[in-house]
Every structure is written in C-alpha cells, then in structure tokens.
Amino acid sequence: MNILPKRTAIVVFLAFAFAYFFSALIRAITATLSPTLTQEFSLTASDLGLLAGGYFLGFSATQLPLGTWLDRHGPKKVILYFLAVAVLGCVAFSFATSFSGLLAARILCGVGVSACLMAPLTGYRRWFHATSQMRANSWMLMTGSLGMVASTLPVQWLMPIVGWRMLFWGLAVLVLVAMALIAWQVPKWEVSPVSAPGAGGAPASYAEVWKHPYFRKMAPIGFFCYGGLVAMQTLWATPWMIKVAGYSPLEAAKGLFWINVAMLCTFWAWGMVNPWLARRGFHADRLIARGLPSSFLLLAIIIIAGDTLSAWAGALWALYCMSCTFVSLAQPAVGMAFAPALAGRALSAYNLVIFAGVFAVQWGIGLAVDAFKRLGLTEIQSFQSAMGVFLLCSVASYVYFLVAKSHNPSS
Predict the structure, then answer these.
(1) Whole-prediction pTM value?
(2) What is the pLDDT of residue 195?
(3) N or C: which end of the chain has fewer CB within 10 A?
C-alpha cells in the first residue's frame, strides 16, 4: 500500500475522470445517433443492438489480459496504450461506409477505452484509503454519467452543424488530450511481486477469482442487473421512447439527457453517503438486497404501461436507472474482497461479467424484438415481450444473490 497525499489523490482522480468522461461519451453516443445511423445504413433492430453491443464485445474481450497487465505494469502505462487504440477506433468510425465498417470501429473503440475504469480502480485499491475507494468508485461513475449527458442533447445540437463523422474526429482529439493529462499527473507504479501467493504457495491466478464464493454470488446480478442498466441507458431506453412512447428523436434525446442527469446526481449522492453508510454497518450486500427490487417494480410498470403513459416514459426510465444503481456497489465490494495484488484481476474479471451482460442484453433484446415481430406481434408488443424476458432474467439473478453464500472476508 502506498497511500497518496490528499492533494495528489485529487489530481490523480481528476486525470483519470477526464479520460473516463470521454469513454462514457463514446459508449453512449450510439443511443443518440441511432435514428440517424438506422436511416443512413438501413439498420434493423438486431443490427442496431449488435452495433451498440460491438463496443461491449471489444470491451469484454480485453478484460482478462487487462487485469494481469494492470497488476504487473500499473494503471498509467496500461491505460495510455489502450487509449491510443481508442483514438484509432474513433477515426475508423468517422470513415465507415457500411455496417461492417461501423461494427469493426465500435469494437475497436470498446477495446481502446476498456481500461478507463479498471485502471483507476486498480490504482485506488493501492493509493486510497478503504473508505475513500467506495466514494471514488461512485464519483467515477458520476463522471461517466456526465459523459453520457454530453452524448445526448449536446450531440443532438451539434449533429446538424458538423455531422456525426466530424464528432468522432473531435472525440479522437479529446482522447489524446486525456492521454497527455494521465502521462503528466498519474504516478508510476511501484513494482511488486507479479502475483500474490495462492493456496499452497502457488502463484495467484484468475482461478482464485472465479472460484471465490463472493465473486460467484455477485456475478449473476452483475451480468443481468448491472449489464442491463448499461444496456438500457446506452441504447434501448431511446428506441423505447421513440417506438413505444411515440417520442420524436429530439424528444427522445431530451429524455435521455434527463435520464443521464438523474444518474449523475445519483452517483454523486452515493459518493457522499457511502463512507457514512459503511461506518454504520450498511455494507454493499445489505444495500443491494434492500434496494434492487425497486428496479424490478419500475421496469414492470414500464412494460405493462406500454404506450399508455407516454408522457411519463422518460421519467419512468430515469427512475428505473436510478434504482438500478444499488448494484453498482457490487464492483468495489468485489475488489475489496481480494488482496491488493489481486485487485486488478478481480476488478477486471467482474467488469468482464458486467460488459458481457451489456453485450448480451443489448443484442438479445434486439433479436427478441425482431423474433416477436416475426411471430405476428405488433412493434409495441414485441418491445414489451422482449423487456419482459429481460425482467425475468434479472429477478432470477437477484434470487440467486439472496440464496448464495458469500463468505466475504471483512475489509
């Protein structure tokens, strides 16, 4: 452990947060661009789901080697190499002339920004006090929500002026600026043993992460509930508002803007209250168990209401996303369940679970919508049925969370 002075810690946090802001903007921008891309490239619902999910496919593919590299080489070196790939991905997206070109560029973007949260969280595990780590995690997610806010109305306003291709050139330049800040402000990684000793003195590996009861307890809710939250926020809330609630693209962009503002405020509040809750015994498991069912109730209301509560669709989606943030407490809790030398692997493995879930939910809902249409359901009924399947999966993952043993060592 090498705890940073408070002033240095703040500067390091801001440098990482600047990069994560643009990571989230790149992640979420397809929701705002979905009407334009659908029209320009004649995309189906499953095409759109695969395109948005392509980012998460690339993101997920790097998580296992990323964890090992973070433990060995440290956050600074790793994130700089990855962000260089993100720059290439943004440029490639701006040049794309077909669906396959868009998809390849999105996968490249996903690879490039895949270290933007795991790198700082790995650093915070060594550089920050335990009570500060939960706050730093929540405020990193708040920064991500700010990036998602920037991906809504600001992008919608800029589209007629510069076009979507120039937007990605601008993102490439801003990612380069983020790289410069990290290279300047983030401290070097102090070399430590390659891995912590495992059972029987064997070198630690991902096997120790996968077999840990607490990791297994948290994995299903990470896949369906956390992954589903990101899938809704970055894609399917917008088509729902347009196809089901009857919003115009601009109205949907406004709805998504306020959803992301609500998420920003929620994560800011989590960062403020987490240390206070921890001191009073309200640990992550307890908060998730009590708070997450509210998200199931809200999603059920959205599904059953369909187009009958069109005026409230944006507000209901905002409440749903806010209620899902209870599951965000699982990520830092998983990191703190392992020794610092294994933190990179543990965090990256759990991130793999989350973003595999995002990819599965984003593409799966698109496939389900198209499949229900082929069965003769109307578009609204197809969206309702697809979301209903997702809700059942989320509830099942929560039930497993309640009954599974954790054996979580105290932090």
Answers:
(1) 0.79
(2) 46
(3) N
